[in-house]
Specification:
It is a single chain. By secondary structure, the chain is mainly α. It has a single domain (3-182), classed as Four Helix Bundle (Hemerythrin (Met), subunit A). 79% of the residues lie in helices and 0% in strands. It contains six helices and no strands. The model has no long low-confidence stretch (mean pLDDT 93). Bound molecules: fe (ii) ion (2 copies). The site of one fe (ii) ion (FE2) has 5 residues, from helix 1 and helix 2.
């Protein structure tokens, strides 16, 4: 798989999780109590894999392609800032979830808003990269660039969608399978 194809696959996987979170937000708005452990697993995966590996990998690619096109440069530096903002929003959500799991009283509406904001930010970010940034990078990149980057950026292990499922994500994996069968 090429690097862009790998990143695209990560986006497809992330989107599955965002679909799951969106359905949790809807249920919360209807007054249902969500499974906070499961939401915690999703956020823990996103902050571990997306914030920890996927975005840093993209940052290195974006830095590499800086200086080829001025419009692309602006997009790339904005996108790098978004990575930092996304990391911050994962941390805030994770803290809220930890609070709930440790009996902190957080109004349901407030939590639903926090979760909805998280999902929206993540979704907009994926759309920006897929709709604007990746096509523009592809337009300036050549085979040599990708060969060089492939050597520099080995693919990290994905603990949820990769070859080996991490123990901590077993429940989430099952939920995703159930969701896919129900769809
Ligand atoms: Fe990104
Ligand atoms: Fe991405």
């Amino acid at each position: 798989m090429t690097i862009i194809a790998e990143l695209h696959q990560d986006h497809i996987n992330l989107d599955k999780l965002l679909v799951l979170l969106r359905s949790k937000v809807e249920k919360m708005k209807e007054g249902e109590h969500p499974n906070f452990n499961l939401i915690g697993d999703v956020v823990s995966y996103i902050s571990g894999y997306a914030d920890g590996f996927h975005h840093p990998r993209e940052d290195k690619i974006y830095e590499y392609f800086m200086g080829r096109d001025s419009k692309l440069d602006t997009l790339l530096s904005n996108c790098e800032k978004e990575h930092a903002d996304l990391r911050q929003s994962s941390t805030s959500l994770q803290e809220a979830i930890d609070g709930v799991l440790h009996d902190a009283v957080i109004p349901m509406e407030e939590f639903a808003e926090l979760l909805e904001d998280f999902v929206l930010r993540q979704t907009n970010h994926l759309n920006l990269e897929e709709g604007d940034i990746f096509p523009k990078i592809n337009a300036v990149a050549g085979a040599k660039d990708w060969d060089y980057l492939a050597e520099q950026l080995p693919k990290p292990e994905d603990p949820l969608f990769g070859a080996r499922l991490a123990q901590e994500f077993t429940d989430l994996y099952k939920e995703l399978i159930i969701d896919m069968n129900a769809a």
